[in-house]
Amino acid sequence: MNQNEFLSAMEDVLQTEDTLSMDTILEDLVEWDSLSVMATMAFLDKNFGIKTTMSDYKTMKTIGDIAKKAGL
Amino acid sequence: MISFTSDQRFIVTGASSGIGEGVALLLNELGADVIGIGRNIERLLSMREKAKYPEHMYIEQKDLSDDIESLPLYIKSLKEKYGKFQGMAYCAGKAMRQPVKIWDVNEAKEYFDINYFAPISMLKGFCDKRICNHGSSCVLISSASALLADKGHTIYAGSKAALSASVRSIAKEYAPYSIRANCILPTVIKTPMTSSRGDYLEEQSAKYPLGIGEVSDVANLVAFLLSEKARWITAQNYVVDCGSF
Questions:
Q1: What DSSP assignment string belongs to A29-68?
Q2: Looking at chain A from residue 44 to 63, which residues have their Cβ under 8 Å from any Cβ of chain B?
Q3: Which residue among A16, B28, B104, B197 is buried most deeply as judged by most CB within 10 Å?
Q4: Any residues with CB less than 8 A from the CB of A15 and at least 6 apart, and which?
Q5: For strand B9-13 and strand B33-38, is the pairing parallel, antiparallel, or unpaired?
Q6: Do B129 and A15 count as a contact with CB atoms less than 8 A apart?
Q7: Which tens digit of pLDDT belongs to each residue from B111-160?
Q8: Which domains does chain A have, with CATH numbers?
Q9: Where exactly are the structural domains of chain B?
Q10: Domain B9-239 class?
């Protein structure tokens, strides 16, 4: 998965009508709630084999931070 | 009095016969735009002929057990064609009676595909604010056998019980977006499917103090749960069995 595919996949994970970029601030997205965190955790695990915990997301500020976690 | 407007658009699966057909016709009669999905185009066309407002009844031929993984994309394509949806009634399903001693895992999976995985995949596609309106509602036809199954219903009852359990989780996931989801658990209802089984309905009728149920007995509850009158009702399983247990 390249960066553009990652952004498009995250739009589906978050079910957002916004177009995401690596600079998108998570807190600015109305969709960024606990269910979205849960969905993102499952998404990283399924697609990248990366296990994350709720506390990992406290330090992430942007979509790019999630991509970094995924190794992109 | 429940009424809808033609900008309130509903997906009804299994719309070519039985409960699905009854739901599609009732929602249409109550003023909604209906997209009726079914496998059989001739039966869909004859359903549309019965519609009170045929110009607000759209039909789509589709086998929902075919490529279940892609159903969210299918719903997205329907949204692009018709616009955002107000609700969905999932009435497609497959019933069987066979004792577990002739159980076959591959056949059992076919029942789970249409009775469980297909509705969950449809919900995945539907429950997305890019697809449905704020305040949308989904009703899934489960079965009274999910709670108390007669012999021969091992697989069927299992697939419906799975659906009834999952609706509670899905309803909680989507409540923050004001999307509701409920199941209805009917018992034997007079439909072409049950009428085709010889004396089956007659044998069953003694169980029901008010007689055998009609499609409209279920369809009216579906319409209520899809309407804004039911705005505070979610994650529920409603048994419609005339007290037969």
A1: -TT-SHHHHHHHHHHHHHHH-----HHHHHS--BHHHHHH
A2: none
A3: B28
A4: A31, B128, B129, B130
A5: parallel
A6: yes
A7: 999 999 999 999 999 999 899 999 999 999 999 999 999 888 999 999 99
A8: 3-69 (1.10.1200.10)
A9: 9-239
A10: alpha beta
State which amino acid sits at residue B34: V
Q: How far apart are the CA of A50 and the nearest CA of chain B, in angstroms?
A: 23
Cα separation, B179 vs B22, whole angstroms: 23
Which residue in chain A is spatially nearest to B73 when comparing CA positions? A12
Edge-first strand order for the sheet with B180-186 is B57-61, B33-38, B9-13, B85-90, B132-141, B180-186, B237-240
Q: For residue B88, which phi and psi values (nearest 5 degrees)? A: -145, 135
CB–CB of A48/A22 below 8 Å?
no
Q: Assess: ipTM above 0.90.
A: no
What residue type is B231 in one-letter code? R
Alpha-carbon distance values, B43 to B32, B141, B203, B237 (Å):
21, 20, 28, 29
pTM: 0.90
The minimal CB distance from A17 to the residues B130, B173, B176 is found for B130
d(CA B26, CA B20): 10
Sequence-distant (≥ 6) Cβ neighbours of residue B224 within 8 angstroms = B2, B230
